[in-house]
Design brief:
By secondary structure, the chain is an alpha/beta fold. 31% of the residues lie in helices and 20% in strands. The chain has one domain: 3-Layer(aba) Sandwich (Rossmann fold). The chain has a 7-stranded mixed sheet. It is globular, with a radius of gyration of 17 Å.
Amino acid sequence: MDKKNFLNKSLIRYGFGWNYRAWSHSLKTCGILSKSKYDRVLEIGAGKHSIVSLIFDGIAEEIVVSYYEDKQMHDIESYLNFVKKKKELKSTYILKKLDAKTVIGNYDLVIMKSVLGGIYRNNNGSLLDIKVFIKNLFSRTVKNGGILITIDNGKSFFENFMSSFGARKNQWRFFLKDDLNFSGMQFYFGFLSSFSFEMRLGIFGFILDNYIMYPLDYFLSKILPNNPTVILNIVTQNINKK
């Protein structure tokens, strides 16, 4: 695709948090976000280390940042205030407790990063269940002409050796790219970036993640594309016609 992506690139680091270059790669390069203005954006499942909807700051009039449990609100609010001290944010931000399985709205764009793995952790639910969930979420939240973006953890080539790392020890679900090929517009990236050094090693880990591992991933994911570590789907109205 040769369309220009409209993203606030100065906020990608803050939006994606750890391992941000690998996690943002497909979204930056997919060429699908050609609208320069949105009325309302919803993020489902923000976290204390990333608020991915920040990348639409100044592009969206209103950004609703949602969390699932009351105890998460303080961390997310603190992180948003931290970013506000670093950057002059232009959009209106609303923090709200929402459940992905019941939320109703009327948004131009809905985005969720690393959420499906949590909802369907312990391998609960079939792939058909996930597709039905996505169709229902789209119909409940996205207005005519809008889009839904999912960004999820891919099952690494090294998965069998990493069961005790990070989210894996909490039984988070990791996916093969074909598991989530429900939209017709799928983009993926990565081979090595299956966990974050930054979360363990601080600034040294940040350098490893983004300036050593990312360039290696950029090369390896082109020649070894079958086990991407980040899987992006762009969902439009077409999914409801399948």
